[in-house]
Each structure stands twice: as C-alpha cells, then as structure tokens.
Design brief:
single chain; alpha/beta; 7-stranded parallel beta sheet; binds 1,4-dihydronicotinamide adenine dinucleotide
Length: 269
C-alpha cells in the first residue's frame, strides 16, 4: 500500500479523492486550510513551504503520489488570490515534493485544472506568460489590474472568471511542459492533469448561487450528458492516474466534464 498527499482534502473533489485512496487501503496525508493532517495556506510562499515540510515529515521523505486539488473558483473576490492559490500553489507544492516522488520509484502526480481553460473565452495571455515565468508578484499585480478593467456585467457574474480560467490554462501548460522535463520523465515521475467541468461541490454551488439540485439544462455552458458531475466522478480518475500501473501516460490533460469541452470545441484534439 502506498502513501499519497492530497491537497484540498477537507471538501469536495479533494475529499472524494482522499476517500477513494483510503478505501483502497492507502495512507493519505491531507493538506488544507482546516480539517487536515497538514494545515497550510497554499496561497502564500510560507504556506507552501509549510505544506511541503509537513508532507515530507509525514511520509518520511518517500511519497507514491500527489493529488494537487486545492483551489478556489471564479467567484473568489480577489483575482490576485486566485492566481496564487490556483496556479502558484500546485506548482510550488509539486516542485517541492518531486524528489520524494522520485524516491518511491513509481511516483505519480495529478493536478486538477478546469475545462474553463478551454471553454471560457477570457484567457489573458499576459497573465499566462507571467505565471509560467514564475513571477508571482507581477502576475498578481496584472490580475488585479485586469480585474478592475473588466465590464461590470462580467464582475457581477464571476469577479475572477478571467484570472481563474487563465490560471487553469497556465497550469495545464505547466503540466505539459514539466511532465516531459528529464527530471520528471526520466526519473519515473509521471505528471498529468484533469480538467473537470461543473461538479457539485461547495465551490461550484457558491459560484452559481445554485441550490444543491441545480438543473444542468439551465447551466450557461452546454451539458451534453444532462447532469452535473459528482466529486466521486473526478476522484475515480485521480485514483487511476495515481496507480503505479498507470505507467505510460504523462503530460495528459483529461477532460472529465460530461462532454462540455467537446460540445464547445468539437474539432479540437
Ligand atoms: P471545494 O471548495 O469543495 O474544495 C476546495 C478545497 O480547497 C477546500 O477544502 C478549501 O479549503 C481548499 N483550499 C482553498 N484555498 C486553499 C488554500 N489557499 N490553501 C489550502 N487549501 C485551500 O471545491 P472543489 O470543487 O472540490 O474544487 C477542487 C478543485 O477543483 C479546485 O482546484 C477547483 O478549481 C477545481 N474545479 C472545480 C470544479 C467544480 O465545478 N467544482 C470545476 C473545475 C475545476
């Protein structure tokens, strides 16, 4: 049985991912702002260092897998915080834990992105560039300035939608670039991303103002399957990506979104 770290383990998709791993007999080290083995704020450099140290102490320096799930959504009020939590959080955590994954001999990492990266037409190229360059201060400043220039109707709908979609876009690109770097690929540490669509969690319900039983056919994006995802639907794939047997997939971005991305971009591959 293995040892796995899961961020965002206190709620929603992260909690379901941790439950799937625990049910399979593994040891799970949960990381979150509350109700977790390691309490840390992944939105700050200090918090990320605390998270890495805490996980390394709990696993004894050898880790079989990491699921970087923690995040906030497009309705978070501060675009700068969205960039810090949703992009710089998982990147720093995975960079910090990569050596422990290498020591396992079959290290696996999976990151939760979003289909917003390909379905929301508000990708901010400059923000993506600053994030991928690792310049958090400049990325935060840019995100705030871009947010304040957004039309009122967009801000009323989801104040950080552009920062959110752009952070998840940058994260998917970081996964694809990093997965094939020799220090990951040639050392047997596989890195993939999942791009969920609308999943019934506190984050999603909070961003739409919906009840806990919203109607998929009234959702603003196409929902070909006619239903919302459940946290368990994403946890299933988290578990698959983290298995040692998943040994020939790296740099993939898997849409687990009920067909939304395919409906919006049928000819993209
Ligand atoms: P959730 O709100 O149920 O869970 C998110 C968890 O992340 C919470 O336990 C929260 O405390 C933790 N978290 C937030 N900020 C943190 C910080 N600064 N440091 C440490 N932990 C922090 O939300 P959900 O839906 O389970 O979200 C999980 C991931 O899935 C997020 O990255 C989100 O962007 C992504 N996602 C969710 C979708 C949805 O429809 N629910 C769709 C696409 C992506």
């Amino acid at each position: 049985m293995g040892t796995y770290a899961v961020t965002g383990s206190a709620s929603g998709i992260g909690a379901a991912g941790a439950a799937a791993l625990t049910a399979a007999g593994h040891t799970v080290i949960g990381v979150d702002l509350r109700d977790a083995d390691v309490i840390a704020d992944l939105g700050t450099a200090d918090g990320r260092a605390t998270a890495v140290e805490g996980v390394l102490a709990a696993c004894g320096g050898v880790l079989d897998g990491v699921a970087a799930v923690a995040g906030v959504g497009p309705n978070a009020p501060d675009a700068a915080a969205v960039v810090s939590i949703d992009y710089f959080g998982p990147v720093a955590l995975l960079d910090g834990l990569r050596p422990a994954l290498e020591r396992s001999g079959a290290g696996r990492a999976v990151v939760i992105g979003s289909n917003s990266a390909t379905t929301v037409p508000l990708i901010d190229d400059r923000l993506v560039e600053l994030a991928l360059a690792g310049d958090e201060d400049a990325a935060r400043e840019h995100a705030r300035a871009a947010q304040s220039a957004m039309p009122r109707e967009v801000l009323d709908m989801a104040p950080s939608i552009a920062a959110y979609a752009s952070s998840k876009f940058a994260l998917a690109r970081w996964v694809r670039r990093t997965a094939v770097a020799p220090e990951w690929a040639r050392r047997g540490v596989l890195l993939n991303a999942i791009a969920p669509g609308a999943v019934l969690t506190p984050l999603m319900l909070g961003s739409t103002g919906a009840t806990d039983r919203p109607d998929a056919d009234e959702f603003p994006t196409p929902m070909p399957l006619g239903v919302f995802g459940r946290p368990e639907d994403i946890a299933f794939w988290i578990h698959q990506f983290l298995k040692p047997e998943a040994r020939y997939t790296t740099g993939a971005v898997l849409y687990v979104d009920g067909g939304t991305d395919a409906a919006i971009r049928p000819d993209a591959q």
